[in-house]
């Protein structure tokens, strides 16, 4: 179960865009004509970003295209600490 207070520890869509843009600044060649100093502020530490990403992916649902299936993905199960994918299908009516 996810509690409201725990949601701040999960990477949000807005944070994904923020992190993507910051990584883009680092990966691409620096523009020598920019007046800004060559510094990228990631706001959070790499460890904090990794925790948010890991929490997001630890248990999530994937919906494959052109199907009615849902995949419940658990990256580290309680029983054996291994990743598992459970296929969920609607009950025929």
What this model shows, in words?
With 93 residues, the chain is α+β, with helices and mostly antiparallel strands. 30% of the residues lie in helices and 15% in strands. The chain contains 2 helices and 3 strands; from the N terminus they run ααβββ. The longest helix is centred in the first third of the chain and has 15 residues, at 13-27. The model has no long low-confidence stretch (mean pLDDT 87).
Briefly say what this structure is:
The chain is of the alpha+beta class.
State the distance separating the first and last CA atoms.
29 Å
* H-E order: HHEEE
Largest sheet: 3 strands, antiparallel
- Relative strand content: 15-25%
Helix content percent band: 25-40%
The total count of helices amounts to: 2
Radius of gyration: 19 Å
Q: Total domains, how many?
A: 1
Spatial sequence of strands, sheet with the most strands: 1-2-3
Number of strands: 3
- Uncertain ranges: none
Overall pLDDT:
87
Tell me the structural class: alpha+beta
Q: What's the overall geometry?
A: elongated
Short descriptors:
93 residues; 30% helix; elongated
